[in-house]
């Protein structure tokens, strides 16, 4: 064994190096414990542990060995929501209308703005538990589905397919209607229903014999109707002619005759001296009318 070697065969310089490393590690751990600040303190720029400012304020002047931390309130549009050693307050979040955001709660000195989505949109990405950062448009339920939960500012629309035998023809339907039962209507199904449209019903087709049985009575009834109309028209014409002749005879019987009074003309002779002596002469002197009876 070489002289100067410690028991165990390790050289002396290795043992001395090991001792130095252990000493340095111990000193480092001691100084870290000495340099750490309490929960209510913060490490200032000059290395001191200074008291934190309360929520709603910030550090205006770090502490010294002879003075405490100098704090000032946050200015308008800024905030701090916890005790801090910040030289500046945080800026309040802006709710961008172009991103379909609206202000739900205004910003104060101690809390940030709370943003929410406008109607018709829901929050698809949150900045934190309280405020929204990105909005997405509510999904529109298509025909063939029914809405089970309308969209809100936090959740999208929820909808499910219509069950077999039912349909919804409109978007955003909250119910599915049953297909029409053609048998109950006395009809046959022309087109089957599906999830977005009702079935189509129609009347059953007639064979040739059924058509004959249907059309012959119709034709006969039509002819009888025409004949009946002609008979009625002719009968009315005859009655009209008879009535006209009777009225003419009645008019002839009712002719009024104007009576003419008879006149009795009498000639009264008057004697006058004739230029021829010995010959009588007569002339009508007057007419006397006498009404008879």
Please characterize this protein's 3D structure.
The protein is α+β, with helices and mostly antiparallel strands and 293 residues long. Among the domains are: 36-91, Tumor Necrosis Factor Receptor, subunit A, domain 2 (Ribbon); 94-137, Tumor Necrosis Factor Receptor, subunit A, domain 2; 145-202, Tumor Necrosis Factor Receptor, subunit A, domain 2 (Ribbon), CATH 2.10.50.10. It is 24% helix and 22% strand. The protein has two helices and 18 strands. It has helices at residues 12-35, 208-253, and strands spanning 41-43, 49-51, 57-61, 70-73, 78-79, 90-91, 101-105, 114-117, 121-126, 132-137, 145-149, 158-161, 166-167, 177-178, 188-191, 200-202, 266-267, 287-288. The protein has a two-stranded antiparallel ribbon with strand order 1-2. It has a two-stranded antiparallel sheet with strand order 3-4. The chain has a two-stranded antiparallel ribbon with strand order 5-6. 12% of the residues are buried. Mean pLDDT is 80; it is low at 1-5, 29-34 and 284-293. TNFR-Cys repeats lie at residues 36-71, 73-115. Residues 36-71, 73-115 form the TNFR-Cys domain. Residues 1-36 form the signal peptide. Keywords: Disulfide bond, Membrane, Signal, Transmembrane, Transmembrane helix. InterPro entries: Fas_rcpt, TNFR/NGFR_Cys_rich_reg, TNFRSF5.
């Amino acid at each position: 064994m070489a002289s100067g070697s410690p028991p165990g065969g390790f050289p002396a310089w290795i043992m001395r190096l090991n001792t130095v490393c252990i000493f340095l590690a111990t000193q480092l751990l001691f100084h870290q414990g000495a340099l750490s600040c309490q929960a209510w303190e913060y490490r200032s720029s000059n290395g001191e542990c200074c008291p934190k400012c309360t929520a709603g304020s910030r550090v205006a002047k770090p502490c010294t060995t002879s003075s405490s931390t100098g704090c000032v309130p946050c200015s308008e549009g800024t905030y701090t929501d916890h005790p801090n050693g910040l030289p500046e307050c945080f800026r309040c979040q802006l709710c961008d209308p172009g991103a379909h955001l609206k202000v739900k709660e205004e910003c104060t000195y101690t809390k940030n703005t709370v943003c929410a989505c406008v109607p018709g949109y829901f929050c698809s990405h949150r900045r934190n538990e309280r405020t929204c950062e990105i909005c997405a448009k509510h999904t529109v339920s298509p025909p063939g589905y029914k809405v089970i939960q309308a969209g809100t500012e936090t959740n999208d629309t929820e909808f499910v397919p219509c069950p077999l035998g039912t349909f919804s023809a409109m978007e955003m339907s909250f119910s599915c209607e049953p297909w029409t039962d053609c048998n109950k209507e006395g009809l046959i199904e022309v087109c089957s229903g599906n999830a977005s449209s009702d079935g189509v019903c129609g009347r059953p087709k007639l064979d040739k014999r059924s058509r004959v049985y249907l059309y012959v009575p119709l034709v006969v009834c039509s002819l009888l109707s025409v004949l009946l109309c002609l008979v009625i028209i002719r009968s009315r014409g005859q009655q009209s002619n008879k009535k006209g002749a009777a009225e003419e005879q009645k008019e002839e019987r009712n002719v009024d005759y104007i009576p003419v009074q008879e006149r009795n003309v009498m000639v009264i002779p008057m004697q006058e001296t004739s230029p021829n002596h010995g010959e009588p002469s007569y002339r009508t002197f007057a007419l006397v009318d006498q009404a008879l009876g």
